[in-house]
Specification:
Blueprint lengths: L1 H8 L5 H7 L16 H6 L9 H9 L1 H12 L10 H4 L2 H4 L8 E6 L7 H7 L3 E7 L2 H9 L8 E5 L16 E7 L7 H14 E12 L4 H5 L5 E3 L2 E3 L5 E3 L3 H9 L3 E15 L4 E14 L8
Parallel strand pairs: 1-2, 1-4, 2-3, 4-5
Antiparallel strand pairs: 5-10, 6-7, 7-8, 9-10
Helix pairs in contact: 4-5
The chain binds S-adenosylmethionine.
Length: 298
């Protein structure tokens, strides 16, 4: 399978994020040890050298450009449709107060829409705002045959600096999905992105989060030369990836007025039968709500 080969030859291992979720139960091992192996812990002292400050600033300045080039190279072919979203996040079905309620969702960092189109197909009574800072990605979303303005609004937005309220009414969204996006944002700017999301979320609304967990296989594969900071790395194509501990994630959200409802590691083994390889994946899957008491900040 082309996608599986890609998993092991490219620096971007994100294709695996989908494939693992579709694996049969016997290929999934839920009891993986989070601790590093002896060989891996020997590597740690070498990893203290970080990418130079100059290069780090350049990467930050060019973050949008690098994602845009990613979509220029891969068009819509890199990520597979994420049909597992409703299965994994039961809330998408159950968070309606009454059956006929039209659910308003924001897919923050939507890429080319792999999350939103399966949802639009599955749920006729849903309206989706979808934003990404790559204009190319947003254009792909708008060109999709299932895109229609009555049910979906895609727009360009840098979550770290553009106010979402320019496109989405304040406190109007029931559910925000943040799927493998926060990891792509510089740790110092994550808080700003959460504040941005907070303002458009209804009181009682929730954020459904899934992203890379600490010590994930992708993290182990990075070389010392790719290290930007603690648990933060750069891929060959200039896109970056952070690996979350559940403690840090809870601190990030709770510090911005969210309440943790669920926050746990998901352990998976990805098996590539053709290559005879088996790798251990660690993801973090979480749910945070905006409490009814909290006010939207100015
Ligand atoms: C791994 S992709 C995930 C895409 C999508 N959520 C999915 O599940 O298929 C990460 C996306 O985050 C977007 N992104 C990264 N930083 C962003 C930012 N500051 N503001 C908005 N989007 C951002 C990238 O352009 C990319 O499309």
């Amino acid at each position: 399978m082309e996608s599986e080969i890609k998993c092991f030859t490219s620096d971007h291992v994100s294709t695996e994020e989908q494939s693992i979720c579709d694996k049969p139960q016997d290929e999934i091992n839920s009891n993986l040890d989070m601790s590093l192996s002896q060989a891996e812990s020997h590597k740690l002292p070498i990893d203290k050298t970080l990418v130079s400050e100059f290069k780090q600033m350049k990467l930050e300045k060019e973050a949008q450009k690098n994602w845009d080039l990613f979509y220029k190279r891969n068009t819509t072919n890199f990520f597979k449709d994420r049909h597992w979203t409703t299965r994994e996040f039961e809330e998408l079905k159950s968070c309606r107060q009454f059956e006929s309620q039209r659910l308003v969702l924001l897919e923050a960092g939507c890429g080319v829409g792999n999350c939103i189109f399966p949802l639009l197909e599955e749920d006729r009574n849903i309206f989706i705002y979808a934003c990404d800072f790559s204009q190319r990605a947003v254009d792909f979303v708008k060109q999709h045959p299932l895109y229609c303005p009555e049910r979906c609004k895609a727009f360009r937005c840098d979550l770290t600096q553009d106010d979402l309220r320019g496109e989405v009414p304040p406190a109007s969204v029931d559910v925000v999905t943040l799927i493998f996006v926060l990891s792509a944002i510089h740790p110092e700017k994550m808080v700003r992105s959460l504040e941005n999301i907070f303002r458009v979320l209804k009181p009682g609304g929730c954020v459904l989060f899934r992203d890379y967990g600490l010590n994930d296989h992708a993290m182990q594969r990075f070389k010392a030369a790719n290290k930007l900071g603690q648990n933060f790395y750069v891929r060959q194509d200039g896109t970056r990836s952070f690996f979350f501990s559940k403690e840090l994630l809870a601190e990030l959200f709770e510090g911005r007025g969210f309440r943790s409802v669920a926050n746990d590691y998901v352990f998976r083994e990805t098996v590539n039968k053709k290559e005879g390889l088996c790798v251990q994946r660690v993801f973090l899957q979480s749910k945070f709500t905006k409490t009814h008491q909290t006010e939207t900040s100015p």
